[in-house]
Give the backbone structure.
Amino acid sequence: MILPVTVYGDPKLRKVTQAITKDYEGLSELIDNMFETMYNAEGVGLAAPQIGLTIRLFIVDGSPAAEDEPELKDFKKVFINPEIIEVDGEPWEMEEGCLSLPSIREKVMREEQVTIKYFDENWKEITETYNGFAGRIILHEYDHLEGKLFIDYISPLRKRLLKSKLTAITKGKGNAAYRTMIPG
């Protein structure tokens, strides 16, 4: 089932999320719905707060970018209760967007490597290191679990220049090509 995407202005996007347990009701269906929602919105990642849930869960599928980034060919994963172990490497800039901030794209600096520990959908504990675009996707989605958005990394001037767009999003005028959940 395609779920509405929570957009900028909803306080759930600014909350630090809570860990879940193996017996979290409807988890498998939730994961399926998150993938369906993400694909419908043409995203490469989706975190639980983006569908109104303040739990430590996000999904990624970088395969749509595999033409430019071949290492993303099979990069489809579920991250439950993730914990970043280390962020390392030279910071690099790339334009990012977010399903919760429709029509907004900004250049963001992030380190090139992340080591993360998490449980997959079968509750197998995994620790892996990701680089480049895969690492960036993970850092972006992980930020959602910490109550952060990519606009938190841009300059105050750029943020002021986006103020009218951000206000429009909070009023349901974000020009999203997918179903959204208006704050309030």
